[in-house]
Amino acid sequence: MTADRKIVAFCCRECAYAAADASANARTPLPPTVRLVLMPCTGRVSPLHLLSALAEGADGVMVAGCLLGQCHYREGNFMAVDRVAFVQRLLKSVGVEPERCQMFTMSAGEPPKFVAAVREMDRVIVGLPPLPRSEAGESREVAPVADATLAAVRGAA
Amino acid sequence: MPLTHRGREILSRVPGGTLQSTVGVGCEIVRHEELCVGCGKCASNCPSGASGRGDFFDVNQLLEAPADSRRGALGGALRRLMQHAPDGPIEVPERVTVYRTIIYDDEKCLGCGTCARGCPAEAIEARPPQADAAPTGLASEGATAPEGGCA
Questions:
Q1: Alpha carbons within 13 A on the beta-carbon side of A109
Q2: Is B92 within 8 Å of A86 when comparing Cβ atoms?
Q3: Cα angle vertex A39, ends A38, A43, to 5°?
Q4: Which of A149, A154, A156 has its CB closest to that of B70?
Q5: Cα(A60)–Cα(A62) distance, rounded to whole angstroms?
Q6: Buried b / exposed e across B17-55, counting CB within 10 Å, b at 16+?
Q7: Nearest 5°: phi and psi at A91?
Q8: What is chain A's pLDDT, residue by residue, as a tens digit (157 residues)?
Q9: Global pTM?
């Protein structure tokens, strides 16, 4: 299996990451393309995480969170749903396939659902042409801390 | 902003005292969209409803934002991915709060400068009215010139 495509999965600690853990314990093979990123809650995922993962080399990003209504922090996954929708619209407006960013929900007791989600994401990415990106220029910087931002904005004003 | 009762009374005692406009202090509001962080403070502070938070987002605001700001970082990532210029404003889902474009209605604006004073990103400038456009009938020291209201 070629693993030259990369999928970054932002996983909620309370459910999807636990499901991933359980699936690994059960020795269920995951596609080798996926990279898991542990998040405290999918509500922590910002559009910047998703877009910079794509810009820095990922072919697809997925957000895996709790079932709607079962968020540990009550509504974190609702925020994630809206942010994923926002990123999809951003991507679409600049001519990138919106399917490269998707949201999945599952509970901690559903390892097969997590594996199915990763395979589904992998299947989608295999069907897409490689993602062309321009070389990193001045746009490589990661977001600095808030104080520096404010100072810079003030300086520019 | 309308004059207070006392203000109107003083104005009536100034010989030939008429304000150019009785509803505004007449600052010129200059908005720097590229510095806007989308917090919506201007919208919630605006006394006349000239500023409001939109349901859409102009993608160009990301691309034009300074590179070391949060919006600029997102714009930098987007610039590396983009295949063509943005199609136009996109609709924003309800729970996305900061990536919104502020709607500004020139017609409703009173020029009071409240938005500029409250803007944390200093993206709004309130320029005092031009000297030649200021009311001429007011005595020099008695006139509470509109500049004071705009600082």
A1: 1
A2: yes
A3: 155
A4: A149
A5: 7
A6: bebeeeebbbbebebbebbbbbbbbbbeebebebbbbbe
A7: -60, -45
A8: 456 899 999 999 999 999 999 999 999 999 999 999 999 999 999 999 999 999 999 999 999 999 999 999 999 999 999 999 999 999 999 999 999 999 999 999 999 999 999 999 999 999 999 998 887 654 444 444 445 444 555 555 4
A9: 0.78
Chain A nearest CA to B104, separation (Å): 20
Which chain B residues are closer than 8 Å to A48 by Cβ?
70, 73-74, 77
Collect all residues of chain A within an 8 Å Cβ-Cβ radius of residue B95.
Answer: 78-79, 81-83
**Bridge partners of residue A103, in order along the sequence:** A63
Residue A98 tokens, joined: 């919106």
Nearest chain A Cα distance for residue B23, angstroms: 29
| Residues of A whose CB is below 8 A from B61 | none
Distance between CA B74 and CA B111 in Å, rounded? 32
Nearest to A38, CA basis, from A49, A23, A48: A49
Q: How far is B123 from chain A (nearest CA, A)?
A: 7
**Residue B89 and residue A117: Cα distance in Å, rounded?**
31
Q: What value does the CA radius of gyration of chain B take, rounded to a whole number of Å? A: 19
* Residues of A in Cβ contact (< 8 Å) with B91: 89
- Residue B48: C-alpha distances to residues B22, B43, B106, B113 (Å): 14, 10, 11, 11
CA distance B35 to chain A (A): 7
B16 touches chain A (CB under 8 A): no
Does residue A4 come out as left (phi exceeding 0), alpha (psi in the -120 to 50 range) or beta? alpha
B79, two tokens: 């610039």
CB of B39 within 8 Å of a chain A CB? The answer is no
Of B66, B83, B95, which is closest to A95 when you measure between CB atoms? B83
